[in-house]
């Protein structure tokens, strides 16, 4: 209740609460464990390390009884609270999620998948090689129901983890985000394009694509209108972006070899000039190289040619 009211308790109250929690933790069921972690996250009060470890121990005992939604919430909460579980705990979590993610109800709207991807990216944990592919496959039925925020979180988490899904899956996720991009926050508008620019890269590449890499021309032709719509939405929201997000916006379009339009370029330059003192020297150099590449892109390269089927 305190978390729902956003009422932050006093230090004395929390100390007494943690003392009592240490006593009753073994009696908590799966929902109780999730509720405690979620509430602490919403109140932004990271628990003492011994309390977090106690909750993880109790969760491990009951892992077979966790649903995908409950376990994803637990992972999200622990990551948000700054607690990284040990690998033996995570391997049991992977086994549970492999079994339960396909059963996640459509009403969950893909939130469990997004929460898992986000938590793993925060922890910078490399799951078993086939787990992220499984995460994408089981997320597919949920993509049409996902909110713009959940879709952005899922794609960004996968990109941060260095995953390279099939192009068709990335394209479908981009299409579904586009349908709701008018509801997206300014950071989500940038994050999705940045994530797509990474997810489409060849397998085995790191966070930076090869110098001569670009998505296939047919892909850029087919998705040019979607990228342009998102670019327009970005340009109307530059004032709400942090300097690093302004950099990511330019990097993403440059890596996709997509020119976002004169209006985007002019507004982006104007807002960068307004915030110039907030950029690091590295960011200034990176922006310069991205703008140089964007200025060199021939827009006709991703316009349909006569008789071309894409």
Q: In words, what does this structure look like?
A:
This protein is mostly helical. It contains 14 helices and no strands. The chain has helices at residues 11-24, 30-43, 49-61, 68-80, 87-100, 111-123, 131-139, 148-160, 167-179, 186-199, 217-235, 243-255, 262-274, 281-296. The chain is globular and about 70 Å long. The model has no long low-confidence stretch (mean pLDDT 91).
The rough form would be described as globular
Number of helices: 14
**What are the secondary-structure elements, in order, as H or E?**
HHHHHHHHHHHHHH
**Biggest beta-sheet profile:** none
Beta-strand segment tally: 0
Strand content: under 5%
Mean pLDDT figure: 91
**Low-pLDDT runs:** none
Q: What labels describe this entry?
A:
310 residues; 14 helices; mainly alpha
State the gist of this model:
With 310 residues, the chain is an all-alpha fold. The chain contains 14 helices and no strands.
How are the SSEs ordered, and which strands pair?
Elements: H1 11-24, H2 30-43, H3 49-61, H4 68-80, H5 87-100, H6 111-123, H7 131-139, H8 148-160, H9 167-179, H10 186-199, H11 217-235, H12 243-255, H13 262-274, H14 281-296
């Amino acid at each position: 209740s305190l978390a729902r009211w956003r009422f932050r308790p006093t230090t004395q109250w929390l100390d007494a609460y943690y003392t009592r929690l240490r006593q009753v933790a073994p009696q908590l069921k799966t929902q109780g464990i999730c509720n405690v972690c979620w509430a602490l996250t919403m109140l932004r009060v990271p628990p003492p390390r011994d309390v977090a470890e106690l909750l993880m121990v109790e969760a491990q005992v009951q892992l077979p009884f966790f649903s995908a939604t409950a376990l994803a919430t637990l992972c999200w909460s622990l990551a948000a609270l700054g607690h990284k579980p040990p690998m033996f705990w995570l391997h049991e979590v992977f086994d549970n999620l492999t079994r339960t993610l396909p059963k996640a109800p459509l009403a969950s709207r893909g939130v469990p998948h997004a929460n898992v991807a986000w938590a793993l990216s925060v922890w910078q944990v490399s799951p078993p090689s086939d787990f992220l592919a499984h995460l994408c496959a089981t997320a597919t039925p949920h993509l049409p129901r996902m909110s713009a925020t959940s879709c952005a979180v899922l794609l960004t988490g996968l990109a941060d983890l260095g995953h390279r899904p099939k192009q068709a899956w990335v394209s479908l996720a981009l299409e579904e985000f586009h349908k709701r991009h008018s509801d997206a926050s300014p950071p989500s508008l940038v994050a999705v394009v940045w994530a797509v620019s990474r997810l489409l890269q060849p397998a085995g590449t790191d966070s930076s694509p090869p110098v001569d890499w670009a998505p296939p021309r047919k892909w850029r032709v087919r998705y040019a209108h979607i990228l342009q719509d998102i670019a327009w939405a970005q340009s109307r929201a530059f004032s709400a972006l942090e300097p690093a997000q302004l950099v990511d916006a330019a990097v993403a379009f440059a890596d996709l070899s997509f020119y976002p339009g004169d209006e985007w370029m002019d507004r982006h330059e104007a807002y960068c000039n307004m915030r110039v003192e907030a950029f690091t020297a590295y960011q200034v150099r990176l922006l310069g190289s991205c703008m140089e590449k964007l200025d060199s892109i021939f827009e006709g390269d991703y316009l349909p040619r006569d008789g071309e089927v894409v």
